[in-house]
Amino acid sequence: MELNLYTQSLLWAFGLSLVFGAIANKANFCTMGAVSDWVNIGDQSRLRAWFLAIATAIIGVGILEYSGSIDMSLTTSNDTSNPPYRSANFIWLRHLVGGLMFGVGMTLASGCGNKTLVRLGEGNMKSLVVLAVMGVAAWWMLFSNFGYYVFLQWMLPLGIDFSQHDIAGQDIATVLAGLSGNESGPAFGLIVALTLALMLLLWVLRARDFRNNFELLSAGLIIGLLIVIGWYVTAGSSGQELLDELAFRDQRPFFTGAQSLTFIGPTGHVVQYVKQGFDSIYLTFGVATVGGVIVGSFLYTLIFRKLRIEWFITWRDFGMHVAGAVLMGVGGVLAMGCTIGQGITGVSTLALGSIVTLIAIIAGSAATMKYQYYLMMREDD
After folding, report:
1. What is the total count of domains within the chain?
2. Cβ 301 vs Cβ 224: under 8 Å
3. In terms of DSSP H, where are the helices of 249-351?
4. Within 10 Å of residue 315's Cβ, how many Cβ atoms?
5. pLDDT tens digits for range 94-119
6. How large is the average pLDDT for residues 182-198?
7. pLDDT tens, position by position, 232-280
8. Which DSSP string corresponds to 174-217?
C-alpha cells in the first residue's frame, strides 16, 4: 500500500530522530554538558562537536539551496514553515530573552530538550518529570494567548521589519545583499554559507585532541547531516507537493511545512496530541521526532545494557528541575527553538534570530553555572 506524503514525512521524522537519539546517547552529545565542560574545566571537545554539527548543517543547506534541491524561501512564512526562521520580521528581543531563559532552564534541569529525551530513553525518571512539565509549559505558550500577552505584545514594536526596506528575509545573505542594494542570488547565499562554515571548521578542527576523537567527530557530522536531511524531506520537492496536497484538505494537520529537528515546541505538540484524544490532525512532524529520540536512545541503552534508573535526591533537586523545565518550555517556544532547533537547525538557515538565540542560550547557561559555583563556594566557607 502506498503511503501518502504526510505519513511519509512523519516516518522520516521518526527515523531521523531515532538515529539522533542513538548517536546522542552513544557520544554523550549534550549541549548543556558542552557548555559545562568549557566553563568549569576548560574542555571544549563537546562544544566543538556541537559546532561541527552546525558547520555541517550550514554547508549542507547552502549546497542544497544553491542547487535548487530545497526551497528555503518557505521558511519566511508561518504558513509554509515551522517555525519561520527567515521571517522578514526580526523580533530580536524574543530571541534574546527566550534564549537566556532556555539557557538558565537547561542548566537547572541538568540538560536541554534533546538530552531530556535521551535520558528518558536511558531510564532516567527525572527526565520524565522534566519532559511533562516542559511540555505543558510549551503547550501553554503555543496553544493559548499567554505568550502573546506576557511577551510578544511588547516585544513586537521593538522588532526590525526588514520587509519595510524591501529585504525579503532575515538570513545573513539576504540582509547583506539588501543593505547593499542588490538581490541575494543562490551563488551569493552559497558563498556566505561556505565562508561562515569554514570559519567555524577552522576553529573546530584546530584542536588535535578533538581531531583524534572519532566518536565526537562522527557524532557532530552525523547530527549535522540529519538536520540537512530533515530540510531536504520537508523543503524539497516532496515537501512542496505535501503543502500543495494539504491545501485541498478540509482540515489541514497542525504545524506542517518546511522544518527539521527541534525538540521544545514538539513537546507542546505531544501534550496537545494527547489532550485531543490522539486525533491524527495533531500528530505532527515534531511529535514523531520526540518519540523517535526516546526510542532511539532506549534501543541503544537496551542493546548495550546501559539502563540507569534515577530519581530526585531531595525536594530541592526536584524543585530545581521543575523550575528549569518551565523556563525551557516557555523560553524555548519564545525563542522559536532550543539548542538543536535554533542552535543547529535554525543556524543552518543563517537566520539572525537563530544566531541571537544560540548566543543567548550559551550566555544564560554559562552565567547560571558560574552563579551555582559561587553559591557552592559560599556554602563551603
Report:
1. 1
2. no
3. 265-275, 285-303, 315-334
4. 8
5. 999 999 999 999 999 999 989 999 99
6. 91
7. 999 999 888 988 888 888 788 899 999 999 999 999 999 999 999 999 9
8. HHHHHHTT----HHHHHHHHHHHHHHHHHHHTT-HHHHT-HHHH
Residue 298, C-beta contacts closer than 8 angstroms, at least 6 positions apart = 21, 121, 122
Domain that holds residue 315: 5-380
Going by C-alpha positions, the residue among 303, 348, 339 that lies closest to residue 30 is: 339
Alpha-carbon separation of residue 302 from 121, 298, 335 (angstroms)? 9, 6, 35
Amino acid at 379: E
- At residue 339 the predicted structure's pLDDT band, cuts being 50, 70 and 90, is very high
Distance CA 53, CA 21 (A): 15
Pairing of strands 160-161, 89-90: antiparallel
CA atoms within 13 A of residue 143's CA, in its CB half-sphere: 20
- In whole angstroms, what is the distance from residue 111 CA to residue 119 CA? 9
Identity of residue 302? L
Give pLDDT, residue 263: 96
pLDDT (tens digit, 9 = 90+) per residue, 132-149? Answer: 999 999 999 999 999 999
Query: Within 13 A of 178's CA, how many CA atoms are on the CB side?
Result: 16
Residue environment code for 16-40, b if the CB has 16+ CB neighbours within 10 A, otherwise e = bbbbbbbbbbbbebbbbbbbbbbbe
- Residue 381 CB contacts under 8 Å (≥ 6 apart), including other chains: none
Region of residue 310 (phi > 0: left; psi between -120 and 50: alpha; otherwise: beta): beta
How high does pLDDT run on average in the chain?
Answer: 94
Give the pLDDT confidence score for residue 151 in this predicted structure. 95
Which has the closest alpha carbon to 336: 93, 123, 171?
93
Alpha helices by DSSP H, the chain: 5-27, 31-36, 45-67, 92-108, 113-122, 125-143, 146-147, 153-155, 172-179, 186-204, 208-211, 214-235, 237-246, 265-275, 285-303, 315-334, 352-380
pLDDT of res. 1? 44
Assess contact for 154 and 345: CB atoms under 8 A.
no
Query: Is the pLDDT confidence value at 127 over 50?
Result: yes
Q: How far, in Å, are 118, 237, 339 from residue 68 at the CA level?
A: 34, 10, 28
